[in-house]
Write a structure and sequence with these properties.
The complex is a heterodimer of chains A (about 375) and B (about 325). Chain A is of the alpha/beta class. Chain A is built from 16 helices and 13 strands. In chain A, strands 1, 2, 3, 6, 9, 10, 11, 12 and 13 form a nine-stranded mixed beta sheet that branches. In chain A, strands 4-5 form a two-stranded antiparallel sheet. In chain A, helix 2 links the parallel strand 1 and strand 2 (about 55-60). Chain A starts with a helix and ends with a helix. With about 325 residues, chain B is an all-alpha fold. Chain B has two domains: about 5-75, no CATH class; about 90-320, Orthogonal Bundle (MetI-like fold), CATH 1.10.3720.10. The model of chain B is unreliable at about 1-40 (pLDDT under 50). Classes of the chains: A alpha/beta (about 375), B mainly alpha (about 325). The interface of A and B includes residues 70, 233, 236, 249 and 379 of A.
Amino acid sequence: MKVRSLLSIAALGLASAAPAVAETMLNVVSAGDQNMVDYVNNYLGPKFEQMNPGVKVRAVGTGPGDSGSQKIYEKLEAQRKAGSATWDVDVAVVHQRGAATMVNEKLLMPYRNDIAAGKLVSRDTAKNALGANVDGYVLPMFHSQIAFAYNPDLVKAPPKSFSELAEWVKKNPKQFGYNGVKGGMSGVGFVMGWVEANSGMRDQLEKGPYDPNMKPTIDKSLAGLKDFNQYVVMTPGNAGTLDMLNRGEIAMGPVWVDMFYTWMADGKMNPKVKLELPAPGLPGQPMYYVIPAKAANAALAKKFIDFAESPEVQAQGIVKQFNWYPGIDPQYVQSKMEPAAWNKLFTDISPADLASKGRPFPLSDYFTDIVEGYERVVLK
Amino acid sequence: MVRSAGPPQGADCAPAGGSAAAKPQAWGDQITLADDAIVDAPPGGERRWAGVALVIPALVVVGLFFVLPLLLSAVGAFRSTDGAFTLAHFAKALDFYGRDLVFTVAIVVLSTLLIACVAIAIAGYLTLGENPRSVALLRWLYRWPLFIPFVVAGQIMRTFLAKNGMLNHVLIGTGLIDPLSAQSMLDWRGIVIAFVWKQAPFVTLLLAGAMASLERQHIEAARNLGAPRWRVLMDIVLPQARGTLLVGLVLSFVTMLSVLSVPLMINPNSPTMITVDVAYRISTFADYAVANALCLLSLLLAAFGAAFYLRHAVQRVEVKG
């Protein structure tokens, strides 16, 4: 009896898995956390399928951090080396470093001027990824930002800048926590922010030119971080910082704003915890939609991205449901949302603060110098 | 292989050399050996090819997915970007991660020792315990961690060992420590606890099996002569099951050396285990060369375990033979 019912369930499963007639599969491969795959599978994909009968959107995740983008790069690179006529990735969602590498190695197709939504982007990151020119090849899916989260019950007056923070941790040892450079990007972002604040070379780090002889200056600012580290707690990962904040083990730490709001919305975060962007700023980054140079369904891919960048989808999906900052110019998005939902995103960090203190990550080469410097100077 | 062990064709016609007297004798030995082997070997060439054909899929899988990547990784560790031989990657690996290498060895050795203590205690009680109910309960309980993956163990420890985690809540609740002295164990201690928790049941399983198969008379004789149970365990049971214990510990040692999830979840910050550094080199820098060098260094550590294991396995075969 049991076996038979199991068999019939299996048969049903097989029947429903059989492909429908003449269905086109749009393969979306996304780097980043699981919420990005969820976004395509649960929100964007079903809507796009509804509008385009006969199209099926399939999203696959390659994992968080730059390594997720690295896997996509390696896959496309392998298909090019194998001489495949078409590649089986139609739309990829990648980080800045990944996009820069892929544009550089000619693995991507320029498409921004082919779609209507291409005119809605305004931020510099649509053209420039960590110093690499990606103009035309990318559209930001969203922007994400690192900020300090703090518990106002424990921290009455949060430090407003990195120099105030350095004083604050000495008076409140083991109350600030971050996740180093090996435990996720919120920790890496904090280190970048520290170097930008303490090396006096912010513009050069962000805009270039790259000068390998600046390493000693970078190392000098990292030496201060080594001293700073004696007064702080090391947390296990991006989520680890949020966990420890939530359990009251630390009072303050750098977090991704979108993760923070998502945890808050899911009831996983103490609702009292607030955000703050210290001067001179912390980095943030976009995720980019890109189309591989030999995507099998390039036309459909453009249509998909055009839809994903439309003000309605950006308002309802990106901002309201997933708590990211919009990828296109906010002015197009704000008018599509009720003020309460829009304001929620800017409760603690005002748009003006975001514009002045939301920094890009340093150029790729400086980025490498800083994290390697961190290993050499701070960890040894 | 076996067939070619016989004398070369036309050996009888070999021109008599200076050592002719010695040769026939040596060959004579070989002939005896070869004759035995031929009797055992299957008749006909096809049977042999059938045997080879049966082995080939396994060999191909091992060759393609294990040996080849290993060789590529070894080559990558010694090759600079322009293809020349270099030791720079090793220099960088040791310079940046030498401390983590020492940390890894320390963690794994300490965990292995603790696992040995836990496994001996549990297996000893299972073998010598006199209360059938508690033996049954322990037998049922101790295997649970075996079925829990490392990544889940890491996740459990992350909430269990945190400063305001369950362990400290229990300790504070029972009045054993006061709230201010509670501290997070999410550092090297967390990794060791996770490893011991996960691997001790595996070694216990092997060890308890070996202890159960010993002759009961030895134990009973010792008990009759008035030996307490701990002495029976240490002097009678354990020496006889020593080989199995060592094999279990070596396998655990090598397994723990390769775990990424536990250190990544509990303590990815410096100092950390070498696996985290390998993942970090690849994911942050796409730097396969230094990652390969680190992998080879950790292979070297595992090779100690493997050498030990092989020597012991060979010894056992010899003893049995």
